[in-house]
Amino acid sequence: MEGVGGDGRSAVAPLAKWRNDFSMAFQYYLDKSTPHSVQRWLGTLAVALIYVLRVYYVQGFYIVAYGLGIYVLNLLIGFLSPKVDPELEALDGASLPTKGSDEFKPFIRRLPEFKFWYSITKAFCVAFAMTFFSVFDVPVFWPILLCYWIVLFVLTMKRQIVHMIKYRYVPFSFGKQRYTGKKSSTSVSGLPRD
């Protein structure tokens, strides 16, 4: 009697420990990759290239590619949108400035860069794994899907750009601002420094 209950628990315990250890190690490396955005995006580009080569080589899985494209477009909209949309929310202290005289408030994304990167990378990995199962290879005429996705992309980006212009925000910052002090060697009184 002791063996029946003991065997069930002993088989689950190592599996749960392995899963916990794997989860902790994965989170550790994920945390270590946070400040290395260029390397992370280069890795994602490599994963995307492998996926594209796989789809090209197999000549199929266009529905998977279309679904991936729609998902990435959805993530891109979240990445380019402000956390508090002035069109939908009542104007409060956290809204974007709408006039030149308003106080500067930094742009806060609805979807932060790290989550954007992680979601895209995970999506490409899942789509790549789906290419190994023939159930996902639905026969479709891919040029129609491509044209429909391009039209959807153009219309969505047009709407997003109009929104950016209307509320005067730019979702990109190109590096940290650097402030320079006085470059002259004179002191405040105008006399040369010793």
From TrEMBL:
This is Protein RER1. One of its GO terms (biological process) is protein retention in ER lumen. Involved in the retrieval of endoplasmic reticulum membrane proteins from the early Golgi compartment. It comes from the Eukaryota. The keyword Ribosomal protein does not apply. Keywords: Membrane, Transmembrane, Transmembrane helix. Its main location: membrane. The chain crosses the membrane at residues 63-81, 116-134, 140-157. One of its GO terms (cellular component) is Golgi membrane. It is found in: Membrane. InterPro entries: Rer1. It is a multi-pass membrane protein. Belongs to the RER1 family. The keyword Endoplasmic reticulum does not apply.
